[in-house]
Amino acid sequence: MAPDNSDDSKAQRLAELEQRLKEARGRGEVRHTESPPSSMGIAFRLVSELLAGVIVGGAIGWGLDAFFGTAPILLIVMFLVGVAAGFFNVIRAAREMNEKRPKG
Amino acid sequence: MASPMEQFEVHPIIPIEVGGLDISFTNASLWMVIVVAVTALFLTMGASSRRLVPTRMQSIAELSYVFIADMIRSAAGTEGLKFFPFIFTLFMFVLFANLIGLLPPIGFHPFTVTSHIAVTFSLAFFVFLMVIFVGLWRHGLGFFSLFAPKVPFVMLIILIPIEVVSFLSRPISLSVRLFANMLAGHTMLAVFGTFVVALASAGGALSFLSIAPLLAITAVSALEFLIAFLQAYVFAILTCIYLNDALHLHEHH
Amino acid sequence: MAAAAQETIEGTAEPAESAGLPQMNVETFPSQIFWLVVTFGLLFVVLSKMTLPRIAASLADRKQRIEGDLGAAEAARQGAADAQTAYKTALAQARGRANNLADENRKRVTGEIDKLKATADAQAQSAMATAEQRIAAERTKAKTHIRSSAAEAAADIVERLIGAKITSDEAVKAVDAAETKRG
Questions:
Q1: Does C24 touch chain B (CB under 8 A)?
Q2: B101 in helix, strand or coil?
Q3: Nearest by CB: A85 against B66, B169, B226
Q4: What is the pLDDT of residues A82-102, one digit of tens each?
Q5: How much is the pTM?
């Protein structure tokens, strides 16, 4: 049964070729490069989000106080709003980070 | 002895004054020109070979193209690709500014453009304005629904100010993060650098001890390279995320 | 020892640091912002007008080329697969035809053999039957012959022994009786 054997090996080689072609096609398309998330980067990001909210809130309060002469009421109110906004930012940033992980 | 803060000082090279405004060409301006020249040269050289099997430069240029395009597509959808040239320029400018600042100080100390809040805030503020314009252009006044989540009316009285402050804090967090990262990293490197010089010049057994801060410099430099890339990436991807908000409001693409 | 060295250095560095961050020197802001706008704008123009279209074209070229090559390879593979299936079906057909032919031949030959065997059987059967008939006839003939000759012999013996003359009929009857008695 020598000729039958070589037929089998030919069929096998054809199947291998098909597999390799499929792989070559796939290689060109999917290439997801995501930068590695470093824990320090994440911490820095979250801290700056919180801080930014507080700074902006405080600055707005300070400005409004200066404008209306209501110091320090609006500064305190807007500082609290800023803290809340900072926490919103942090929650949003954390959610974005979580969303990205399973995708990548 | 040089202060670790000396590297951040701005000195005029060519004094220019227009309408009472000091816009002198300073060492900071010089390094901006260097950053832009190196970036443009590097990428254009990579782009000009156009071989089927890419050269190393070409492959770096092409990989960064694909990398940024993928990032925009995943963070802001296909529509975000309209802003591809801007985001690409932004990423490359920040990345090269961060990296060039890490060059070892031989003869002169490299100036890190992105370690100045004026620069990072200008970039962040431009992104902020762009997001507002894109939002207004795409959705008209409906863009302001970004500040009003779907909650009962009473809640809105509290939530709208918070959302507005949160929105306004974006350019601050964006710019402060980059600025603070660069400031901290370069200050740390400069401090270790002065240790090395001081210990080495102390002579005797002390000069032998200068190996410790040298090792520290090597470790911190490696970390700083990572941070240089990471901060450029964060700056660019947050720009994409903010653009996504402007393009699609609260819905997810 | 290193800690001591640190202290002295920090001590010398302190007065310069107290001047504040150079970043907070508002006087430098207009210059920085102005040159940032100029340089960043320049980079944006160069990249978006020159560099990025080139990279995009190069990427598109490569993608097209790879697609084309992959397409050609796929077509070649398809051709090879088609040729293989054609070869297999042809082989199967030929095998089937050969089998049919062999079957037919076998059937024809066995049929002929069977026919020949049957005629030969029939001939042998008839030959055997005639032979048996002849044997039976011969036997009965021989039997009657034996009876008559036995009767004659008996009559002869009786005549010689007792001088009585008996007819052949009587002799035959006697022989038959003797035969039946003997069983």
A1: yes
A2: coil
A3: B169
A4: 999 999 999 988 887 777 654
A5: 0.72
Using alpha carbons, select from A51, C47, C23, C22 the residue that is nearest to residue B120: C23
Q: What are the φ and ψ backbone dihedral angles of B22, each rounded to 5 degrees?
A: -80, 105
- Mean residue pLDDT of chain C comes to 83
Cα angle B26, B31, B35; round to 5: 150
Over the stretch C13-48, which tens digit does the pLDDT of each residue have? 434 434 578 888 888 899 999 999 999 999 999 999
Chain C hits for B209, Cβ within 8 Å: 1-2, 5
Distance from C-alpha of B90 to C-alpha of B234, rounded to nearest angstrom: 11
Q: pLDDT 10s per residue in chain C (183 long)?
A: 444 444 444 444 434 434 578 888 888 899 999 999 999 999 999 999 999 999 999 888 888 888 898 889 889 988 988 998 999 999 999 999 999 999 999 999 999 999 999 999 999 999 999 999 999 999 888 888 888 888 888 888 888 888 777 777 877 787 788 778 776
Q: Which residues contact B51 (CB under 8 A, 6 or more apart)?
A: B58
The verdict on C31 touching B (C-beta cutoff 8 Å) is: yes
Q: In angstroms, what CA-CA distances link B154 with B149, B151, B157, B158?
A: 12, 8, 6, 8
B66 with A31: Cβ contact below 8 A: yes
Residues of chain A contacting B230 with CB distance shorter than 8 Å: 35, 38, 41
Residues of C with CB under 8 A from a CB of A: 63, 66-67, 70, 73-74, 77, 80-81, 84, 88
Count of CB pairs separated by less than 8 Å, A with C? 22
Q: What would the pLDDT profile of B126-155 be if each residue is shown by its tens digit?
A: 999 999 999 999 999 889 888 887 778 888
d(CA C114, CA C101) in angstroms, rounded, equals 20
Q: What is the CA radius of gyration of chain C?
A: 66
Specify the pLDDT at position C8: 42
Compute CA distances C156 → B73, C9, C153, C159, C177, whole Å: 144, 176, 5, 5, 18
Q: What is the dihedral of CA B52, B55, B60, B61, to 10 degrees?
A: -60
Residue A5 reports pLDDT greater than 70:
no
Candidates C66, C77, C84; nearest CB to A10: C84
| Average pLDDT of the segment spanning B182-206 | 83
Cα A58 to chain centroid, rounded: 28
Distance of residue A91 Cα from the nearest chain B Cα, in angstroms = 11
d(CA B102, CA B34): 14
User: From CA B174, how far away is CA B162, in angstroms rounded?
Assistant: 18
Q: Which residues of B touch A (CB under 8 A)?
A: 63, 66-67, 70, 74, 161-163, 165-166, 168-170, 172-173, 176-177, 180-181, 226-227, 229-230, 233-234, 241
